[in-house]
Design brief:
8-stranded mixed beta sheet; cytoplasm; RSH4A protein; two-stranded antiparallel sheet; Radial_spoke; cytoskeleton; flat
């Protein structure tokens, strides 16, 4: 039969509520039964949990020990929190090994990389250099970031300041005349922070001379190889007469698409890397493809049509395209120099300008209402891939003398005259930019409508998402934050491969003959034997006639 207490005979605690065990009973309980009940209760409390592996007995003991050691006020109200703390301390990792495992936080790693940006070297020397130069080429990145921040554009203050310090380090290493924070292009693995600089005149000439020397060296090696090839031409099969189109040379450093030099780095504190000059072939091919950047300059660019270079060349081509389409300034801030001749306009337009000392800035409302208040201050790139058109068929005097004989032999094959490409001149208003279907090329708006007297005029490019410009009084700047891709209303469609070439026309001169039958072979042999026999008879008759003639002469 079931007992009156909450426990069954086989459960721990059985017998505590039986007569004689109550603390109010006058009878003294049996010591053996009491000891058995205590052992059963303790055994129940010592049962380990299948989830955490703990038991209630040790947990309660630890809770009481913690309460007696700390003696908190109103312990009964926080008993649940004390229980959680005891459990958490049990599962906390104990660093009791011979070697402690030090966890390096990401913030610590980033601080170590940027530690060099905050180190000062030769403070007195830097001050003397600044006094000699007068104006430092270091741009005020924090001021530019402040104006763009009014429109919700830009990076965090920490990153902007780190870029500020990185540009200062770049200027201290390179002989730079002007420097500007161009922007940030995003990548799949790492990003690119880009600085736009101009070298001093002497330094730029040295670089061009080095490039010319390498080209001359390459031509010398080619002459030796040509002599060896001429000796082997006799045994070679005939070669194709196809002549590839002439290679359009790149623009010289300091002009056109190569007017500025660009340095990039993945993060502030990492070394700056100089990008190579851009070529027309790279710009033309970059217009036909769309690739995401990886963040590694040596990464190959796998595309069709094949891109002539790696990611560093592709990045440089995209920077040239973005700069040509989105670098703008308020109208009247720049003006052409009075010394410019009309010849420059005929050859391809003026490519230089200067600041207008009499510039009077427009109000923010006027800058926002009309796009005619803004102009392009970078030359546009033609379809040829250059800012100034070059006739690829025009040859030098030496080349003309060498090809006079070829022209005399083939007078019919005359090259067709190419039409000169003419782009919009410098300082063209933005109102002349073509839109994208029903989308205007630019969107202008003030930074705030609540306090218009302190607003900043902000322009956003819809053709190149991520390109922005601001103007506030006599201050303005351009910046880019994006993936480096041009907006396309439709999905990107790669160029199709060229059509398959036609087969060689089949004619009697290349048609295989039918194999003869046995009867035809026998007839052919019989006819050949008859012909040989007739030829032999004729020879014999000729010999006999010759002998008779000799006898008559004797």
């Amino acid at each position: 039969e079931r007992g009156h207490g909450p426990y069954q005979p086989h459960e721990p605690g059985y017998g505590l509520y039986q007569p004689g065990y109550s603390p109010y009973d006058d009878q003294i309980p049996d010591p053996k039964s009491r000891t058995l009940a205590i052992q059963n209760a303790k055994a129940y409390l010592l049962k380990s949990s299948t989830t955490s592996g703990l038991n209630l007995y040790d947990h309660l003991a630890n809770i009481l020990t913690k309460i007696l050691d700390e003696q908190p006020t109103n312990a009964v109200d926080i008993i649940e929190n004390i229980s959680k703390d005891v459990k958490w301390a049990h599962f906390q990792k104990k660093m009791d090994t011979l070697r402690d495992e030090h966890e390096i936080l990401p913030t610590f790693e980033a601080a170590e990389k940027r530690k060099a940006l905050f180190l000062k070297a030769n403070e007195e020397g830097d001050e003397e250099l600044e006094e000699e130069i007068g104006e430092t080429p270091l741009p005020n990145v924090m001021e530019t970031a402040f104006y763009f921040e009014q429109a919700g554009i830009g990076l965090s203050k920490d990153e902007s300041y780190h870029i500020f310090l990185a540009l200062k380090k770049l200027i201290s290493v390179q002989p730079i005349q002007t420097c500007r924070f161009w922007g940030k292009i995003l990548g799949l693995e790492m990003n690119y922070i880009i600085a736009e600089v101009q070298y001093h005149e002497g330094e730029e000439e040295e670089e061009t001379e080095e490039e010319a020397v390498t080209e001359e060296g390459g031509n010398g090696v080619g002459e030796v190889e040509n002599e060896e090839e001429e000796k082997e031409k006799e045994d070679e099969p005939p070669k194709s007469t196809y002549k590839p189109p002439p290679v359009i040379p790149k623009e010289e450093n300091g002009t056109g698409a190569n007017k500025y030099v660009y340095f990039v780095c993945n993060e502030p504190g990492k070394p700056w890397v100089k990008l190579p000059p851009v070529t027309p072939a790279q710009i033309v091919c970059a217009r036909k493809i769309k690739k995401f950047f990886t963040g590694r300059l040596d990464a190959p660019v796998v595309s069709f049509p094949p891109f002539p270079g790696n990611e560093a060349n592709y990045l440089r081509a995209q920077i040239a395209r973005i700069s040509a389409g989105t670098q703008i300034s308020p109208i009247g801030f720049y003006q052409f120099a009075e010394e410019d001749d009309e010849e420059e306009e005929v050859e391809g337009g003026r490519d230089t300008y200067e600041e207008n000392p009499d510039f009077q800035p427009l109000s923010v409302a006027e800058m926002v209402d009309s796009l005619s208040a803004w102009v392009h201050n970078v030359q546009s790139i033609l379809k040829q891939g250059r800012c100034v058109w070059l006739n690829p068929l025009q040859k030098t005097e030496e080349e003309e003398e060498n090809e006079e004989e070829e022209k005399a032999e083939e007078p019919d094959e005359l090259p067709q005259e190419l039409q000169q490409e003419i782009g919009p001149p410098l300082l063209t208003p933005l109102s002349e930019d073509e839109g994208i279907q029903n989308i205007p090329a630019w969107t202008a708006q003030p930074s705030t409508n609540l306090i218009p007297q302190y607003a900043v005029a902000v322009l956003q490019s819809n053709r190149w998402p991520g390109a922005y410009a601001f103007a506030s009084g006599k201050k303005f700047d351009n910046i880019y934050f994006g993936w480096g891709h041009k907006y396309s209303p439709e999905n990107h469609a790669p160029a199709l491969p060229p059509p398959v070439q036609a087969e060689y026309p089949s004619g009697p001169e290349i048609t295989e003959m039918r194999d003869p039958t046995v009867e035809e072979e026998l007839a052919f042999k019989a006819a050949r034997e008859e012909a040989l026999a007739a030829a032999e008879e004729e020879e014999e008759e000729d010999e006999e006639g010759a002998e008779e003639d000799e006898e008559e002469d004797d």
